[in-house]
Input
Amino acid sequence: MRNQFVDHLTRWAQQDETVTLIVGDLGFGVVDEFAEALPQQFINAGIAEQSMMTMAAGMASEGFRPFVYSIANFPTFRAAEQIRNDVGHHELPVTVVAVGGGLVYGSLGYSHHAVQDYALMRAMPEMTIYSPGDPREMDAVVALMKEHPVPAYLRIGSPATPTVHDREISVTPGGLVHVAGPEDADRTLLATGAVLALARGWLELPEYEGWALHSIPVWGARLREPSFERLAGFSEIVTIEDHLLDGGFGSWVLETFAAAEDRPRIRLRALDPSVAEAVGKEDYLRAVGGLLP
Output
Protein backbone atom coordinates (compact mmCIF):
# COMPACT_ATOMS: atom_id res chain seq x y z
CA MET A 1 0.00 0.00 0.00
CA ARG A 2 2.99 2.32 0.35
CA ASN A 3 3.39 2.38 -3.45
CA GLN A 4 -0.31 3.09 -3.79
CA PHE A 5 -0.01 6.01 -1.39
CA VAL A 6 3.00 7.49 -3.20
CA ASP A 7 1.13 7.16 -6.52
CA HIS A 8 -1.79 9.07 -5.01
CA LEU A 9 0.53 11.70 -3.54
CA THR A 10 2.36 12.18 -6.83
CA ARG A 11 -0.86 12.86 -8.71
CA TRP A 12 -2.03 15.18 -5.95
CA ALA A 13 1.24 17.09 -5.88
CA GLN A 14 1.17 17.53 -9.66
CA GLN A 15 -2.06 19.46 -9.19
CA ASP A 16 -1.06 21.25 -5.96
CA GLU A 17 2.44 22.66 -5.64
CA THR A 18 2.07 23.06 -1.87
CA VAL A 19 2.13 19.25 -1.41
CA THR A 20 5.65 18.25 -0.36
CA LEU A 21 7.20 14.88 0.47
CA ILE A 22 9.99 14.78 3.07
CA VAL A 23 11.84 11.50 3.67
CA GLY A 24 14.46 10.41 6.18
CA ASP A 25 17.00 8.91 3.76
CA LEU A 26 14.93 5.85 2.92
CA GLY A 27 12.12 4.68 0.64
CA PHE A 28 14.26 4.52 -2.47
CA GLY A 29 12.49 2.48 -5.12
CA VAL A 30 9.20 3.63 -3.60
CA VAL A 31 9.47 7.43 -3.57
CA ASP A 32 11.56 7.67 -6.75
CA GLU A 33 8.50 8.36 -8.90
CA PHE A 34 7.64 11.41 -6.80
CA ALA A 35 11.23 12.65 -6.56
CA GLU A 36 11.84 12.40 -10.31
CA ALA A 37 8.54 13.97 -11.33
CA LEU A 38 8.55 16.75 -8.71
CA PRO A 39 12.10 17.48 -7.53
CA GLN A 40 11.13 20.94 -6.21
CA GLN A 41 8.52 19.31 -3.93
CA PHE A 42 10.77 16.51 -2.62
CA ILE A 43 13.25 16.76 0.26
CA ASN A 44 15.57 14.07 1.59
CA ALA A 45 16.24 15.42 5.07
CA GLY A 46 18.68 12.67 5.97
CA ILE A 47 18.59 10.54 9.10
CA ALA A 48 17.31 13.42 11.20
CA GLU A 49 13.69 12.75 12.12
CA GLN A 50 13.41 15.53 14.70
CA SER A 51 14.79 18.09 12.28
CA MET A 52 12.57 17.00 9.41
CA MET A 53 9.46 17.21 11.61
CA THR A 54 10.29 20.77 12.65
CA MET A 55 11.10 21.56 9.02
CA ALA A 56 7.66 20.24 8.02
CA ALA A 57 5.99 22.35 10.72
CA GLY A 58 7.77 25.47 9.48
CA MET A 59 6.73 24.75 5.90
CA ALA A 60 3.12 24.12 6.96
CA SER A 61 3.08 27.45 8.78
CA GLU A 62 3.93 29.07 5.43
CA GLY A 63 1.13 27.39 3.50
CA PHE A 64 2.68 24.08 2.44
CA ARG A 65 1.12 20.64 2.92
CA PRO A 66 4.07 18.46 4.02
CA PHE A 67 4.10 14.66 4.27
CA VAL A 68 6.90 13.26 6.44
CA TYR A 69 7.70 9.67 5.42
CA SER A 70 9.68 7.03 7.31
CA ILE A 71 9.52 3.57 8.90
CA ALA A 72 6.87 3.64 11.61
CA ASN A 73 8.85 4.05 14.84
CA PHE A 74 11.26 6.62 13.48
CA PRO A 75 9.02 9.59 12.60
CA THR A 76 6.92 8.98 15.72
CA PHE A 77 8.96 8.12 18.81
CA ARG A 78 12.13 9.88 17.68
CA ALA A 79 10.21 13.03 16.80
CA ALA A 80 7.52 12.88 19.49
CA GLU A 81 8.38 16.25 21.04
CA GLN A 82 8.38 17.97 17.66
CA ILE A 83 5.04 16.41 16.70
CA ARG A 84 3.56 17.45 20.05
CA ASN A 85 4.92 21.00 20.22
CA ASP A 86 5.54 22.09 16.63
CA VAL A 87 2.80 20.27 14.71
CA GLY A 88 -0.01 19.39 17.10
CA HIS A 89 0.01 22.39 19.42
CA HIS A 90 -0.13 24.77 16.45
CA GLU A 91 -2.62 22.53 14.57
CA LEU A 92 -0.51 22.55 11.42
CA PRO A 93 -1.46 20.34 8.46
CA VAL A 94 1.54 18.02 8.62
CA THR A 95 0.93 14.33 7.93
CA VAL A 96 3.29 11.84 9.55
CA VAL A 97 3.45 8.88 7.16
CA ALA A 98 4.53 5.66 8.90
CA VAL A 99 5.25 2.67 6.70
CA GLY A 100 5.54 -0.79 8.21
CA GLY A 101 2.93 -0.31 10.92
CA GLY A 102 2.53 -3.20 13.31
CA LEU A 103 4.93 -6.07 12.69
CA VAL A 104 5.74 -5.62 9.00
CA TYR A 105 9.44 -5.11 9.71
CA GLY A 106 9.49 -7.70 12.48
CA SER A 107 12.46 -9.51 10.98
CA LEU A 108 14.60 -6.51 11.97
CA GLY A 109 13.77 -6.90 15.66
CA TYR A 110 12.05 -4.91 18.36
CA SER A 111 13.46 -1.57 17.19
CA HIS A 112 11.24 -1.97 14.13
CA HIS A 113 8.12 -3.33 15.88
CA ALA A 114 5.58 -0.51 15.56
CA VAL A 115 3.28 -1.72 18.31
CA GLN A 116 3.04 1.34 20.58
CA ASP A 117 2.54 4.01 17.92
CA TYR A 118 -1.23 4.31 18.32
CA ALA A 119 -0.75 4.94 22.04
CA LEU A 120 1.71 7.75 21.36
CA MET A 121 -0.12 9.45 18.52
CA ARG A 122 -3.64 9.29 19.97
CA ALA A 123 -2.39 10.88 23.20
CA MET A 124 -1.98 14.09 21.20
CA PRO A 125 -5.52 15.48 20.99
CA GLU A 126 -4.98 17.37 17.74
CA MET A 127 -3.88 14.32 15.76
CA THR A 128 -6.21 12.48 13.40
CA ILE A 129 -5.21 8.84 12.88
CA TYR A 130 -5.63 7.37 9.41
CA SER A 131 -5.20 3.59 9.42
CA PRO A 132 -6.50 2.14 6.14
CA GLY A 133 -7.06 -1.60 6.18
CA ASP A 134 -6.84 -2.36 2.47
CA PRO A 135 -6.23 -0.60 -0.86
CA ARG A 136 -9.83 0.58 -1.15
CA GLU A 137 -9.62 2.17 2.28
CA MET A 138 -6.36 3.81 1.22
CA ASP A 139 -8.11 5.37 -1.79
CA ALA A 140 -10.87 6.67 0.47
CA VAL A 141 -8.49 7.95 3.13
CA VAL A 142 -6.42 9.97 0.65
CA ALA A 143 -9.61 11.50 -0.77
CA LEU A 144 -10.61 12.54 2.76
CA MET A 145 -7.16 13.90 3.58
CA LYS A 146 -7.37 16.28 0.64
CA GLU A 147 -10.43 17.88 2.21
CA HIS A 148 -9.10 17.95 5.79
CA PRO A 149 -5.79 19.81 6.25
CA VAL A 150 -5.17 18.80 9.87
CA PRO A 151 -2.31 17.32 11.91
CA ALA A 152 -2.44 13.65 11.02
CA TYR A 153 -0.81 10.25 11.36
CA LEU A 154 -1.09 7.86 8.41
CA ARG A 155 -0.20 4.27 9.33
CA ILE A 156 0.53 1.99 6.38
CA GLY A 157 0.85 -1.78 6.68
CA SER A 158 2.51 -4.36 4.48
CA PRO A 159 3.09 -3.69 0.78
CA ALA A 160 1.21 -6.94 0.19
CA THR A 161 -1.92 -5.96 2.14
CA PRO A 162 -4.80 -7.72 0.33
CA THR A 163 -8.00 -6.08 -0.86
CA VAL A 164 -10.88 -6.96 1.47
CA HIS A 165 -13.68 -4.62 0.39
CA ASP A 166 -15.56 -5.81 -2.68
CA ARG A 167 -16.42 -2.29 -3.84
CA GLU A 168 -15.23 1.29 -3.67
CA ILE A 169 -15.98 2.96 -0.36
CA SER A 170 -15.97 6.37 1.26
CA VAL A 171 -14.87 7.20 4.80
CA THR A 172 -15.75 9.90 7.32
CA PRO A 173 -13.89 10.99 10.46
CA GLY A 174 -14.79 8.53 13.20
CA GLY A 175 -17.23 6.71 10.95
CA LEU A 176 -17.72 2.96 10.64
CA VAL A 177 -17.38 1.11 7.36
CA HIS A 178 -19.33 -2.13 6.90
CA VAL A 179 -17.00 -4.79 5.51
CA ALA A 180 -18.82 -8.13 5.67
CA GLY A 181 -21.54 -10.07 7.44
CA PRO A 182 -25.17 -9.06 8.01
CA GLU A 183 -25.64 -5.30 7.88
CA ASP A 184 -28.27 -5.54 10.61
CA ALA A 185 -26.16 -7.69 12.97
CA ASP A 186 -26.07 -6.48 16.56
CA ARG A 187 -22.61 -7.98 17.19
CA THR A 188 -19.50 -6.98 15.27
CA LEU A 189 -15.81 -7.50 14.89
CA LEU A 190 -14.20 -4.07 14.75
CA ALA A 191 -10.81 -3.53 13.13
CA THR A 192 -8.53 -0.68 12.20
CA GLY A 193 -5.54 -0.81 9.91
CA ALA A 194 -3.85 -3.73 8.21
CA VAL A 195 -5.47 -6.42 10.38
CA LEU A 196 -8.62 -6.08 8.28
CA ALA A 197 -7.90 -9.20 6.22
CA LEU A 198 -7.12 -11.13 9.41
CA ALA A 199 -10.43 -9.99 10.89
CA ARG A 200 -12.23 -11.03 7.72
CA GLY A 201 -10.91 -14.54 8.28
CA TRP A 202 -12.15 -14.53 11.86
CA LEU A 203 -15.66 -13.93 10.56
CA GLU A 204 -15.61 -17.47 9.14
CA LEU A 205 -15.05 -19.04 12.56
CA PRO A 206 -18.06 -20.78 14.18
CA GLU A 207 -18.00 -18.50 17.24
CA TYR A 208 -18.60 -15.48 15.01
CA GLU A 209 -21.45 -16.90 12.98
CA GLY A 210 -24.04 -14.18 12.39
CA TRP A 211 -21.62 -11.39 13.32
CA ALA A 212 -20.66 -8.45 11.11
CA LEU A 213 -17.24 -6.96 10.44
CA HIS A 214 -16.69 -3.21 10.49
CA SER A 215 -13.64 -1.02 10.29
CA ILE A 216 -12.84 2.47 11.53
CA PRO A 217 -10.11 3.83 9.23
CA VAL A 218 -10.17 7.38 10.65
CA TRP A 219 -10.16 7.98 14.39
CA GLY A 220 -8.54 9.93 17.22
CA ALA A 221 -9.13 11.81 20.45
CA ARG A 222 -11.51 14.31 18.84
CA LEU A 223 -13.49 11.73 16.89
CA ARG A 224 -15.23 9.76 19.61
CA GLU A 225 -18.73 11.20 19.15
CA PRO A 226 -19.47 9.87 15.62
CA SER A 227 -18.06 6.47 16.60
CA PHE A 228 -20.07 6.38 19.83
CA GLU A 229 -23.32 7.07 18.00
CA ARG A 230 -22.80 4.10 15.69
CA LEU A 231 -21.16 1.66 18.10
CA ALA A 232 -23.80 2.18 20.78
CA GLY A 233 -26.22 0.19 18.63
CA PHE A 234 -24.29 -3.07 19.04
CA SER A 235 -24.74 -5.49 21.91
CA GLU A 236 -21.23 -6.93 21.59
CA ILE A 237 -17.99 -5.71 20.00
CA VAL A 238 -14.64 -7.45 19.61
CA THR A 239 -11.81 -5.11 18.60
CA ILE A 240 -8.78 -6.36 16.66
CA GLU A 241 -5.45 -4.54 16.26
CA ASP A 242 -1.76 -5.21 15.59
CA HIS A 243 -0.70 -3.09 18.57
CA LEU A 244 -0.19 -3.72 22.26
CA LEU A 245 -3.34 -3.64 24.37
CA ASP A 246 -2.38 -0.63 26.47
CA GLY A 247 -3.22 2.65 24.77
CA GLY A 248 -4.31 1.08 21.52
CA PHE A 249 -7.42 1.09 19.36
CA GLY A 250 -9.44 -1.14 21.68
CA SER A 251 -8.61 1.11 24.60
CA TRP A 252 -9.82 4.07 22.55
CA VAL A 253 -13.14 2.26 21.97
CA LEU A 254 -13.50 1.56 25.70
CA GLU A 255 -12.74 5.18 26.52
CA THR A 256 -15.40 6.25 24.04
CA PHE A 257 -17.95 4.58 26.31
CA ALA A 258 -16.36 5.66 29.60
CA ALA A 259 -19.20 8.00 30.59
CA ALA A 260 -22.04 5.93 29.13
CA GLU A 261 -24.53 4.34 31.48
CA ASP A 262 -25.21 1.53 29.03
CA ARG A 263 -22.65 0.17 26.63
CA PRO A 264 -22.04 -2.91 24.53
CA ARG A 265 -20.01 -5.78 25.85
CA ILE A 266 -16.53 -4.95 24.55
CA ARG A 267 -13.66 -7.42 24.29
CA LEU A 268 -10.20 -6.50 23.06
CA ARG A 269 -7.83 -8.58 20.96
CA ALA A 270 -4.37 -7.09 20.70
CA LEU A 271 -0.74 -8.19 20.75
CA ASP A 272 0.76 -9.69 23.88
CA PRO A 273 3.89 -7.87 25.11
CA SER A 274 5.88 -11.10 24.66
CA VAL A 275 6.02 -10.24 20.96
CA ALA A 276 8.75 -7.73 21.85
CA GLU A 277 11.11 -10.63 22.53
CA ALA A 278 10.53 -12.29 19.14
CA VAL A 279 12.00 -11.73 15.70
CA GLY A 280 10.46 -12.98 12.49
CA LYS A 281 8.02 -12.38 9.69
CA GLU A 282 4.71 -10.64 10.30
CA ASP A 283 2.50 -13.76 10.36
CA TYR A 284 4.85 -15.53 12.75
CA LEU A 285 4.89 -12.56 15.10
CA ARG A 286 1.12 -12.21 14.97
CA ALA A 287 0.92 -15.84 16.10
CA VAL A 288 3.42 -15.21 18.91
CA GLY A 289 1.44 -12.16 19.94
CA GLY A 290 -1.83 -14.10 20.08
CA LEU A 291 -3.63 -12.51 17.12
CA LEU A 292 -4.11 -15.60 14.98
CA PRO A 293 -7.30 -17.55 15.72
User: Anything to note?
Assistant: The chain has a mean pLDDT of 95. The chain is about 30% helix and 20% strand. The longest strand covers residues 236-244. The chain has two domains: 2-156, 177-288.
